[in-house]
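EI: anyone free to look at a 651-residue chain?
SC: sure, send it
EI:
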Amino acid sequence: MNLRGGLVLAISRLVFFLAVVIFHDQSRVNAQQRQYVNLYGTEDFNSSAVENVLGTGMGLINFLYNNQRFQQSAQPDVTPASNSQYDFIVVGAGTAGATIASRLSEIGDAKVLLIEAGPEETLIMDIPILASFMQPVDEINWKYETEPSDTYCTGMKEHRCRWPRGKVMGGSSVLNYMIATRGNPVDYDRWAQMGNPGWAFKDVLKYFKKMENIQIPELRNDREYHSTEGPVSIDNAPFHTPLLTAFLEGGQELGYPLLDYNGRKQIGFAQVQSTMYRGYRMSSNKAYLVGKRRPNLHVTKMSMVHKILIDRGSKRAVGVQFMKNNRRISVYATKEVIMCAGAIGTPQLLMLSGIGPAEHLKEMGIEVVQDLRVGDNLMDHIVYGGLTFTINQPVSLSMLTISDISKPYFRDFLQSNNGPATISGGCEGIAFADVDDPTNRDGLPNIELLSLVSSIYTYKTTMDNFGFNDEIVQKFSSFQHTPSWGVFPLLLRPNSRGWIRLKSKDANVKPMIVANYLDDPEDRRVLVKGIRLALQVSRTKAMQQFGVTFYNKTTSECEKYPFDSDDYWVCNARTQTLTIYHYSGTCKMGPPEDPTAVVDPTLKVYGVKGLRVADASMMPEIPLGHTNIPAYMVAEKAADMIKEEWGYLNR
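SC: here you go
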């Protein structure tokens, strides 16, 4: 350390000592109050600015080297010759598609083609805290938007909700916030009761376990609910802020247990379980494809599928047509085409290929192959985004702070996979509650709370991602890079349903999306109760250690209502209606007698041979949790069903 650096360090330590003396009496008055000086605690850093800069530089060199090795281990980009034949063609290399393609390629004599519209994943995409900063990148995000609405997303530009979706190897598992939840066992029992045998929790638990490699030490011995053998690593972030501790203690103050919400019971508080390995994101691409080169698996990237090729005489899917490098390429499947393009992409491609609501296809000038309710039953989880709080200590996360290389935060990530950069997109804590029966600990939750490391207004990038209008940006601009906390109340069981339709016969034109958020009065009632539960958590003694104070700003549209009235919160929820990216249900699974079903319980499309749908679009009801882990489960089960059908399962 040079003389100047030593002097700065000495002065800073003297200032800290004086601060301790000054606050000594106050600490005696409130013994629980800890005075933090930074994210790492009550003492200054034990390294100098020069050491941190040099350490960050060395870590960056190592990071670039590891990224190069990662790229070399990725699946090579293969461009099939036109009219090539495969046994199986999988459309979309997201959560489900990467899983299914990998599992089918385990069959040594089965030739598999995986088609992805986006590029290869890179390691910078896998730094957990950068999740929000990946969404603006056009090359890896489809950037869908809903149609304008006067009843939701009214605080967004043009009243449109922005709907990100991954367009990259790994799909949305590369853009999401890595929150690993299965939902509730009752979710899958309900699927079975709706006429879908084989989908009860007792049937699907083995697939949740098959995909999982649990890293959380206290859960590794729970063989009933968890596994250490699967490809997808699930762990707690190695670092958390003091706000998480306060959130969990606040939950206990309110009588909630701390628990494994992916275990026997769901209602309670917990640190977020994340799709993460050693501080980095674990995408489906990483878990199932990187480093697993097989001669019978071909992957074509930057390849945009335009339609499914269907033999009209036999009504059989025989292949797909896609564009790559301005070339139109047709490839053929001797066994099956498996759609894994997600709850937006899959229904769009089905409708473009003549499978969908007959009246809509005729209106679009598309020949009807099969009249099915494709695009209906659109579900999503929403949160109210406006619950923002000021705090009086520097324990929240600011990118301006952690990206300052004179501090040790990014050095610690680059050198030891630790520090605040490992937090899953800024989401630390999670809670599940029944707001209609707050004493319920064993039943079904209807609200989830997500505890954040700061408010969503701390970064302009986040506000831009959601598309907030000028009024909201201006009213919350004071939060830029200041200590704050945010909490999302999430509506777990929405009754409202939306729909997707085509705008054009051109596959490059994004479809029409109508979300219909908050259409059902029951959704509004439960969400308002969820908002009040979040406020209750903010008032606990544990949270008040940090001077948590609600920032009561609202839009001019909502100022006419009395604060804390139901009308006030409904107005605000309609203004800042934020998606949690759980689009699902648009190719509903159901029995033959269900007129709204698109696929049967084996995920085969009704009326079209050789075609299955295996992604979140098949979900008949949305699970009580985030949909990424259920999508893995669906893909694992689908792969086994396909193997069984073709005589490969026990080979």
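EI: Confidence is low (pLDDT under 50) at residues 1-31.
SC: 👍
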